[in-house]
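Hi Y.,

Following your request, here is the sequence exactly as I used it, all 72 residues.
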Amino acid sequence: MTPLIAFVAFVAVALIGWGFVELRNRSFHFTHSKDEQHGWDEINEAYEENGKKELNLHDLLQRNSTKGYKAI
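Below is the corresponding structure, written out as tokens. Let me know if you'd prefer a different format.
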């Protein structure tokens, strides 16, 4: 009987915690700053420059600008 009581207590604590977090989430409103929006705009520009194709590892290594003196 003890494992059943422990399971019911666990579910009850989980539901209470979930309800608390949901209420807290609805009371605090999150907005992105203008700097973050600028970063997202840069990401979208880079995505569109590549033909709306994500770069794979091979493409990223070809465009790598951290090759020591070769980068200059």
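The mean pLDDT is 84.

Thanks again,
Q.
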